[in-house]
Amino acid sequence: MRAFMLKKYHNQVGFTLAESLFSLFITLMIVSALPSILLNVSHHTPFSSNAEMTVRQFFHFIQDELLYSTHHNIRSDGIDFQQPDGTTVTIDTYGTVLRRRVNGEGYETYLHEVASFHVKEHSEKEFTLQVEIQGGHVYEKTFFSFK
């Protein structure tokens, strides 16, 4: 019974050498990366306008449609994408709006204030979209299909 009562209790308050070295290592890694992070942030060039940002987002949506489609068909007033489930996604204009429709029903607006929208087919696997926004800014991107 006496041996049980003489049990020593250790106070575990404080840091070990290993813990201190580890925290010093992490701090030095963060401090050494800080200049390059700040340099990249200070040289960031934002979009020249809100229109440029929305057109780039539109081009991203077109790239996604192209990646997920099995076939695309260029028309004089737009482009159709055939999806694996049999649906047809159409990108075309309606007045000054560039829209996305599925099976000819409903629509989702991609761009507003569109002056013109042209699709030029270079080959079966390559086409160029040209979007002119009201105000005269023209944006163009070439897409490639690898299917």
TrEMBL record:
Pfam families: ComGF. Keywords: Membrane, Transmembrane, Transmembrane helix. The chain crosses the membrane at residues 21-39. This is Competence type IV pilus minor pilin ComGF. It comes from Pontibacillus salicampi. The lineage of its organism: Bacteria, Bacillati, Bacillota, Bacilli, Bacillales.
